[in-house]
Structure formats: structure tokens, C-alpha cells
Design goal:
Helix content is 42%, strand content 17%. By secondary structure, the chain is of the alpha+beta class. It has a five-stranded antiparallel sheet with strand order 1-2-3-5-4, sandwiched between helices. A three-stranded antiparallel sheet has the order 6-8-9. Strands 7-10 form a two-stranded antiparallel sheet. β4 and β5 (118-122) form a beta hairpin. The longest helix has 24 residues, at 80-103.
């Protein structure tokens, strides 16, 4: 495999010793498995801004702090320098979030530094030491799905208590490690207190997870953890150890329930079909 130029710089600087293999490539970045001394880690190489759409990021950037008044003005004017600074800020956001959330006890990969636009961090592995699968690639029994849901809701709660919302949380931004789920991919992380779309993004994050895990554990589809969490947060009553019930009575005059619960309703139907299939199979075995 030809070593990417961004990683060759890290080898020359002694940050890593070897690029072992590609791990995955997405719309924002490519991730490689690398060796640093005796440790195997991963390196996230962000794609050039020419390959990425700024239009899709406007909603996420609201409320983010920029390092320096000059940079803030340039970004506001959308100048060439401003677009470059916007790209730098986009990458720094994930790095800063990882350090902050790791310190707060959120289950995220341990960061090992940010060098020349490359984020080096822990390689999340499974029980056998292989690269961990994404949650969306794993079949779960009902009890395990409930357990994973509880863990992930707790991670969302811890993030919110630290003023952050993932913003793009789904079964494909969660890895399954030997000790349970690990949340990844934070370049689109949202300021909970400074973004007007914060509530809708929080609900979308929680509903995405609930819809997927509810396929294996249909009882989850009748929970309202996102709504409950946000109401407590707005009231200043949400703490890292607050015990959530998943129960919530919405104000139907102020909430578009059809939009908010669309993913949940779709998942409920699929879960019922799966349950009927399991019952039919069980009858055939009798």
C-alpha cells in the first residue's frame, strides 16, 4: 500500500512508525491503522475542503467558538482565507470534543494527538483484538439491545451535560468494543447552548439509536429519552447521574409528533414483523 502523503509526514516526524492498512473511508475522512512503537492505533486523515460541502455544515457551525477575532471575521465574510480557517476549525472541533468528552468519562476513543491535520487516536477493537464492528453491522438479542441502548443514552446524557450534542449519531457512528458501545466521529458536534437546532439534533440522535435497537427490543420504541433529557437540560436539572425514565408527556400543540417520531414508527412496524417471524419459527420447531 502506498503511504498517503499526510501520513508520510508523521512517519518522518516520528509520530508513527508504519501504516499497516486502510480501515475505512467516508465523506469526511479516511482512517488508517498505524503502528506507533508497540501500539497499534488509527490515524484519521481529513479530506480536502474541495471534496466536502460547506453548505451542509452551516447548521452545525452555529454557536461554535472560533480561535481569534480575525479568523471569525474572515469566516463570516466567506473569503478564501476564511474558508481555509473554517476548514481548520472544522477539524479542530472533533479533536477538542474528543479530549473534552474523554475527560468527562464519555465512551469515545482515546486521542493521542493532532499532527499536521491528522488525528491519531485509539484503535477500538473487539474481544479478539480485531477492528471493532459498527453497531449497524451487529445482530443483537433483545437483552443486549436494551443494555446497549441504556449505555448509549447515558453517553448522550454525559455529552449534553458537557454542552455538546453529537449531531450525527447513528448505528454507524458507534463501534462495539469488548466492553460495549464506543461513540465515534465528532466533526459535526453541536453546541447545546448556542445552536438553535440543538433540540432537534439531540432528538434525532436518540431516535436514530432507539429505532435501530428497537428492531431487536421493541419495548424501546415506546420510550422518550431524548425529549425527557432535553426538558431537564433546559430547566438546568440534568446532571451526569440523573436517572432517566424514558417517560415523557409531550405538548402536542407545540411538537410535530409525526416528524419527531417518524423513525420510531417505522422501526416499530419492522420490529413487529420480526417478532411475528420469530413466533412463527418457534411454532414450526414445536
Amino acid at each position: 500500500m502506498k503511504t498517503p502523503p499526510q501520513l508520510q509526514v508523521l512517519i518522518e516526524d516520528g509520530v508513527i512508525d508504519e501504516v499497516l492498512r486502510p480501515l475505512k473511508s467516508g465523506k469526511e475522512a479516511a482512517v488508517y491503522v498505524v503502528r506507533s512503537g508497540d501500539d497499534v492505533r488509527c490515524a484519521k486523515v481529513y479530506k480536502d475542503m474541495a471534496q466536502r460541502s460547506f453548505q451542509q455544515r452551516v447548521q452545525y457551525q452555529e454557536g461554535r467558538k472560533v480561535r481569534g477575532s480575525r479568523e471569525a471575521r474572515a469566516i463570516g465574510k466567506a473569503s478564501k482565507y476564511g474558508r481555509k480557517q473554517q476548514e481548520v476549525a472544522w477539524k479542530n472541533t472533533e479533536v477538542d470534543a474528543l479530549y473534552q468528552l474523554r475527560e468527562a468519562g464519555v465512551r469515545v476513543p482515546e486521542p493521542h494527538g493532532y499532527f499536521h491535520g491528522v488525528l491519531v487516536m485509539e484503535l477500538v477493537t473487539d474481544a479478539d483484538g480485531y477492528s471493532a464492528s459498527r453497531l449497524g453491522e451487529v445482530e443483537l438479542e433483545a437483552d443486549q439491545a436494551k443494555q446497549f441502548h441504556a449505555v448509549l443514552v447515558q453517553q448522550v446524557q454525559l455529552m449534553l451535560c458537557n454542552g455538546l450534542i453529537h449531531g450525527d449519531l447513528s448505528p454507524y457512528n458507534v463501534l462495539v468494543g469488548p466492553d460495549g458501545p464506543v461513540v465515534i466521529d465528532f466533526p459535526q458536534v453541536v453546541s447545546a447552548g448556542g445552536n438553535n437546532a440543538a433540540r432537534s439534533m439531540l432528538l434525532r440522535d436518540v431516535n436514530n439509536l432507539t429505532a435501530y435497537l428497537g428492531r431487536s427490543a421493541p419495548a424501546l420504541l415506546d420510550t422518550w429519552y431524548g425529549e425527557e433529557m432535553w426538558e431537564l437540560f433546559q430547566a438546568g436539572e440534568l446532571l451526569p447521574d440523573t436517572v432517566l425514565t424514558g417517560q415523557y408527556t409531550p405538548d402536542e400543540r407545540a411538537v410535530d409528533l409525526d416528524s419527531v417520531r417518524e423513525a420510531i414508527n417505522d422501526a416499530r412496524e419492522e420490529a413487529l414483523i420480526r417478532q411475528q417471524g420469530r413466533e412463527a419459527a418457534a411454532e414450526e420447531d414445536l
